[in-house]
Amino acid sequence: MRNAKASRRLVFSLFAVLVAAVVVAAAGCGPARSADTLSGTVTVSGSTALLPLVQQAAEDFMNLHPNVNVVVSGGGSFTGLQQVAAGSVNIGDSDVAAPSDYASAGLVDHQVAVAPFLIVVNPDVTIDNLTPQQAADIFTGKITNWKEVGGPDKPIAIIHRAMSSGSRATITAIVLHGAHFTDKATILNSNGDVRQAIRQTPGAIGYIDAAYLDSSVKALKYNGVAYSPENVANGSYPIFAYEHMYTKGEPTGATAAFLEYIMSADFQNKSVAKAGFLPVSAVGGK
To answer: Model-level pTM?
Structure first.
């Protein structure tokens, strides 16, 4: 009898230890499992200038949250604004603030970075600087040969973006002061396409954002000032735009979490600069 009671006590004790171990293990796994509870799809479209940063954020975010799918596409700032206003995407990326046409769409602005833009040329163009007037005169078609600004006797080929582009709107506002680009230009759909075409076209000029700059094209100084993050921050280099990620109403769920990740101190201070942008706090949002 004693042996039977002792056996029951032993079984009960082992069961209790097993239950306690399971409880402790479950508690220990709680924080690690919590990241996986977020799920859903986040769709983003718009600015090709902002595209490299958003793609990096999407990759990082999906690694943290395997049950979330972030789908990112370009198309230009005004395409992003139109699509988010229509409810076709969760987030519309834009290099420019939403025009007054969108006042009734219920858009909420999330400023996420500062994008510097560069005037770039084919490496065969020997000049290194343009004054603001020279740049405006080239893009509006008043100057058509590089010899007019101290360069080679070579026709100027303008390669830039469509009307749907926030990059184009930024250059129009800052460099052209609202004047119109000449119609004698090649129009392309993305910053990457513009860079490639300038590299392949003798005498070509255009503009890209800093995230797309590489050795295949040459960045010009603007009014004697070369682009650098420091020169943007101190105000001596004026060609930049605040990057916006618009939502239709306040974001929720995975969309809210994705935007929170982009605005986190870790992403802003590490990934934003690495991708060729500045944290929005470096210049000060508006």
So the answer is: 0.78
